Amino acid sequence: MKLTGVELRRIEMPLVAPFRTSFGTQTARDILLVRVETDEAVGWGECGALADPLYSPEYVDGAADVLRRFFVPALAEADHLDATAVGRVLAPFKGHRMAKAALEMAVLDAELRAEGRPLARELGAVRDRVPCGVSVGIMGSVGELLDTVGGYLDAGYVRIKLKIQPGWDVEPVRAVRERFGDDVLLQVDANTAYTLADARHLARLDPFGLLLIEQPLDEEDVLGHAELAKRLATPVCLDESIVSAKSAADAIALGACQVVNIKPGRVGGYLEARRVHDVCAAHGVPVWCGGMLESGLGRAANLALAALPGFTLPGDTSASDRYYRTDITEPFVLSGGHLDVPAAPGIGVEPVPELLAEVTTATERVAC
Fold first, then answer.
1. Are both 28 and 157 inside the same structural domain?
2. Domains in the chain: how many in total?
3. Which are the contacts of 144, defined by CB distance < 8 A and separation ≥ 6?
């Protein structure tokens, strides 16, 4: 293929309810979409970066800038364009994995559409539907939390993840266990809110039979996670710390995690996400697919990834209505606690033009 045009599109999608984590509260998602045009097909990509550099160093304006000034011009010079070429061409540029992932996703979508191949099959999926969990933000009260969790269980979600932070951890978990019982698959996510000095406190979560505690310490504190893992009965899962297959292998070798959350944007794209999956599978480490409150575009691609054999735990691949009243694609609807993996070529979905137009705040053509 040959790159003939790129459009950067900003959309703003209001959330159905505020989503609070240890690093902030979101009421809407400012999302950067990448649309690539080639001489064979068009493809869509979605950038996982948030509006502010709070989850990771990347942020939406920065992703748009680096795509505009560096990544798209570099890729436009490639003689032969396919998804594997994206990583090679962009390798000299340090960091900016979410921006790279968005561009790779768009090229991969175009390539597979041109060849009539679905992303799930390309990645090596073994399932046509995947079990779905849901991420529950920090609430104003335990009562509000219990009502929210009860609603998600009634909707059919097979796993509950509670966001935690100092002052909102043991008591909310205890309340959920007491209300809904030990059979509910339950895990917690700290988003780096603790330090190793909190190990004794975090050990108070052990009696609740959690699937895992996700990213309790700073993303750079891999050795701290290894020490924490020795002190907890609850398995430690890494999220922000895992930025590549190499970092996953290193963390596993150090004993810093027993589970890995794979987010394609965080590791630089779906091809690297598959390599992370393969490393973890080779070491017998279970993985699950995390989420960044994606639109239907990113959700479709995440479902394809979550259908790989090593994804043995339910991920954050929730239905469209978990976050948005109206998606920009045909909505993903939960059925029996599962979502269907798109089977059409590429990522398997496209934006509905009218819905996309309603949430678009800016568009920009990048010269190729």
1. no
2. 2
3. none
